[in-house]
Structures are given as C-alpha cells and as structure tokens.
Design goal:
Blueprint: E1 11-13, H1 20-32, E2 44-51, E3 56-60, H2 73-84, E4 90-99, E5 102-103, H3 112-125, E6 130-134, E7 139-142
Parallel strand pairs: 4-6
Antiparallel strand pairs: 1-7, 2-3, 2-4, 4-5, 6-7
Helix pairs in contact: 2-3
Bound molecules: tetrahydrodeoxyuridine.
C-alpha cells in the first residue's frame, strides 16, 4: 500500500494586485449578480468568460420552482459561450457571489457539476482556462480548470 497526495496551487490576490484584464473580468462577473433570477435561494451569482478572440460573455444563476431545473451562473455562461462560439476556446472564467446585501467575503467556489462542465470546456479546446474566484477579502486564482477537479472523469475515461 502507498498513499497518493494531491496538491492544488491557488494564488491568493488582493483585488488591486490583479492585472487589468483579470480585474475587468471580475468586475463583469460582479455586475452580473444583479441579473440573476433567485426567488428561492436569494443567492446571486454572476459569471463572466473571456474567449480567445477577446470577447467577454456573461451570465447569472437562473432558478425555477422545480428546483433542479435551475442552473448555476457558471453553466449558464459556459453553455452560452459554447453555443455562440463553438470554435472559440474559453480562456478565463470569473465568478462572484452576492447575498444578504453584499458580496461574499471569502471567494466563491463552484459546485461539482460546474467544475465538470468547466473541465470539459478546457479539455475540449486543449487550452487551460484561468479561473478567478471573487471574494471581497481576496481573490483565488487557479491557472487551469483541472486544478478544481482532481481524479476527474473526462472524455478519455470513456475509452477505458
Ligand atoms: N450557484 C451558482 O450559480 N454558482 C455556484 O458556484 C454556487 C451555487 C447557485 C445555484 C443556486 O441558484 C444558488 O446559487 C444557491 O445554490
């Protein structure tokens, strides 16, 4: 028997330490919380992606009275980006969460299902996606989506 150890590198920034492109993407995600539809959780999430062609697209979480029919901001945004521009890789994703009248103090971290979709977007284009997780106190930056989902199941896994 031996043990494996998995480590994740997370760069922790103050917002004002980030470069202009990262700040702009985070600001876009922050703006989007105002557009979420969250009558059930009252938990607003905004997301923004930057594509390889420089275009920025954004989305927010959308809930439903049949709860599982709702969708997180990350998947709304990623699916929208892939639907609009199936040939263009996603280069970066930023998310922000807002509830009880303020942005979360600590960085918001995506749910498992969103990590899975983010990872498929990364592997689909074979290009790392920079992940920016906003918190009012600090911002987590991961260099690639796969860092969020170790021991993952991907398309290649289907080959056996
Ligand atoms: N949610 C997101 O949109 N993204 C996340 O990263 C976490 C959770 C949404 C789903 C639901 O509308 C609400 O937040 C509460 O879970």
């Amino acid at each position: 028997m031996y043990q494996k150890r998995i480590e994740t590198n997370i760069a922790v920034y103050r917002f004002d330490e980030l470069d202009a492109a990262d700040q702009a993407l985070l600001n876009k995600a922050k703006e989007q919380v105002a557009k979420s539809y969250v009558p059930y959780s009252h938990f607003h999430v905004g997301a923004a992606v930057r594509l390889a062609n420089g275009e920025v697209l954004a989305g927010s979480n959308q809930e439903n009275a049949a709860y599982p029919s709702g969708l997180c901001a990350e998947r709304v945004t990623l699916f929208y980006a892939n639907a609009q521009h199936p040939e263009v890789p996603v280069r970066a994703l930023a998310i922000a969460g807002w509830t009880n009248g303020h942005f979360l103090e600590q960085p918001i971290t995506p749910c498992g299902a969103c990590r899975q979709v983010l990872l498929e977007t990364e592997t689909r284009y074979g290009q790392d996606i920079r992940v920016l997780l906003y918190g009012a106190e600090c911002v987590y930056v991961l260099e690639r989506a796969s860092d969020l989902l170790p021991l993952c199941f991907v398309r290649d896994s289907l080959e056996g």
